[in-house]
């Protein structure tokens, strides 16, 4: 056992901390987690408070995993004593544009394929249930009762605490600068020295590109700087979780939002605004221009939520060409696993950690992850046409 560790995990964000916890549940593991910042920090992709969680998805590749996703969170809540999942119900709305209607139909198809119930709603019913909405008569909707939010920052804290309690070693402020992959072991280089183990998990989100050459990977990883904005309002009480659900409005540009949670404000964002960057160009402060666009959506559709900006926050989407997850072991190196979340993995964090742990402790997983293989065309075909707009 080189260096005394069975496993090294690079990255202690939502996925890395979850992987560390689930690895610690296998007897005989000795796990080291390397994190470039402090633990449970606000500079990674899980630094904000809330993430949408739902069964409703654009593809059965994801919906097939959602029952196990909810089960994983229930387990972590029970073990940690922290409430992580808040059910608010989930509302998907669609404009009359054909692409938007097709997106909502894909959601219905994925739910039906898994036998998960939902309700179809017309504009009148949407306005009756949630009078906060100002929508045109041709807007249609779908409601799924299990939709809600995950407290993503608390989830990192919970996984980190549980992993520590089960003997995992965390080294914060320890950046992985390189990796050496051998046939039966790995060594990770850091400014604090080299660390070796039998197996490796790389869960570094948008920083993966820096380690790709050492891992033998060369697929295109596109980064987009995204923003969420929080708006305060004199009518915040109309948007509490017991009165207002998480929502996604499918249109020419998809928008999504949250009830009041974690901050005294309503949270809203556009999905995939497409501000493409390199890894070293990221910023951690949002901008007023994007906030103004989001305010325009609120003025049109949720006027009661309009008020001064409380906060603008950023994150970076790390996207393969099809904007699907990567959950796999490296070809030719089954002792090395890699994860990419493509900007929509927060809700799956605990389950993805469990799957990555299974891949490296059992050699396989019973969960259906074939669609997220490193061997799929979006990864292996350099001519694959990027499709970053999920309409999810």
TrEMBL record:
UniProt signal peptide: none
InterPro entries per UniProt: FAD-dep_OxRdtase, FAD/NAD-bd_sf, MTOX
Domain FAD dependent oxidoreductase: 8-359
Name by which UniProt lists this protein: Sarcosine oxidase
Superkingdom of origin: Bacteria
Family matches, as PANTHER family: FAD DEPENDENT OXIDOREDUCTASE DOMAIN-CONTAINING PROTEIN, PEROXISOMAL SARCOSINE OXIDASE
Keywords: FAD, Flavoprotein, Oxidoreductase
Cofactor(s) recorded in Swiss-Prot or TrEMBL: FAD
GO molecular function: flavin adenine dinucleotide binding; sarcosine oxidase activity
Organism field: Arthrobacter woluwensis
